[in-house]
Amino acid sequence: MRNIFKIIAVLILGAIGGALFQALILPCLINHPYFGNFSFIKSLKKEVIVNPVERIVIEENTALADAFE
After folding, report:
1. Residues 6+ apart with CB under 8 A from 41
2. Rounded CA gap, 36 and 26, in Å?
3. SS (H, E, C) the chain
4. Using an 8 Å Cβ cutoff, are 30 and 42 in contact?
5. Do residues 23 and 32 make contact, with C-beta atoms less than 8 angstroms apart?
6. Are 29 and 41 a contacting pair, CB within 8 Å?
């Protein structure tokens, strides 16, 4: 039973460490000129393009009323 708690504790600490690394240390590494030459850092520098999405909602009651007018 103690081994299970140890394994779970290690997994939780690893997840917290990974989140802190990604949030605090990785942005500093991306901006540092020495680490900018590594391939995995170069792939993180790429520009991300997000396309806008339009959503049209047609309600039955209003569409039917507009059709009769």
Report:
1. 29, 30, 35
2. 11
3. CHHHHHHHHHHHHHHHHHHHHHHHHHHHHHHCCCHHHCHHHHHHHCCCCCCCCCCCCCCHHHHHHHHHC
4. no
5. no
6. yes
**44 Cβ partners below 8 Å, 6+ apart?**
26, 30
1-44 pLDDT per residue, tens: 889 999 999 999 999 999 999 889 888 888 888 877 777 777 77
25 — phi, psi (to 5°)?
-90, -40
Burial of 26 (0-12, 13-18, 19+ CB in 10 A): middle
